[in-house]
Amino acid sequence: MLSNHHRWTKVLLLSALLSALCLGNYLATPARLERDIQERFEVPGGQEAPLQVGFARVERTRQDGTFHVLLPGRGEVDVAYEGEAWNEGDVVSFSGWVTPEGRIRVTSFTVHRDRQCKKILSLLAALVFACALTVRVYERKVRKGGACRT
Amino acid sequence: MPDLMTHMTAAYLVKRVTFPRKNVFAFVAGATLPDLVSYVPLFISAAFVSLQRSGLLNLPGTFHWFFDLHYLFAPFHGFVPFFLLCWILVLFFPEEERRGILVNLVLGSGLHLLLDLAQESHTPTGYLLFPLSTKSFSLDWFGSESSLHVAPFLMAVAAGVLVRDRIRGRRAGRGAGSEGPGIRPA
User: Fold this and answer.
1) Nearest-CA distance from B88 to chain A in Å?
2) Torsion angle, alpha carbons of A96, A99, A101, A104, to 10
């Protein structure tokens, strides 16, 4: 499994398998999310669980209290919520029901105001990781060079 | 998912406390890679959306291709795809080191997935059992931005431990050097 025997064949086969899995998910996800919505259209009275939407960006707010949001995997959708207003540019997660008009009537939501801070911290961590990796590679090369000289 | 800094520092401290002797970097890499891999498409899609909005790029009909890019790498938050990635990576290391690195990469990713599982999930991308199931699992023990309150503390402790180890390592090296030739530092 980990030996050098047919190493490049293993790398190629594993990469192909991994690519197929990822590509399959990428191609299948929008249809799966769309089916999620359609199922909630078909049985308006019998919906047991609301539609869960994560990290949607509020694109536009309208006078009538509805919002135009950009949903990952679903594109732009109209959302209605009676209560606290969202601002343009907010990132929100919410759950709600799909109305016959194709809108989502929000029942509960979270506004992710600290999301930018989280992104910056994650970016910093990625930089630290990249630096640590560079140092490791450099140390390994130096050690190898030393071993060769002796 | 908690922020990457929490994943990284938590992994470093857990490894340092449990089995600190070997492959610390592999363990930390295992805990970091699932998110790092997912960030690449996120940056591409964010850049594309920004370019579209600013009017610098206009490719009608392709918006979804870029906007949904993170679904391409979402499977890396599942055991099977991440194990395959680790398997590919370790094949580039010397043969005698592969087993240790693979074990640590997988254990590190296990810690990552455990932390993700404990957090509340807003996106259906926690595909633990992918490709058998695309169900997203979460225990909802803490919020998606709650890790920001813990991250500074973990960073400080991890930095402290790292600096202390470096100082001790140098002292040990110097001490061994003064004992005479042929004695290697522990």
Assistant:
1) 6
2) 0
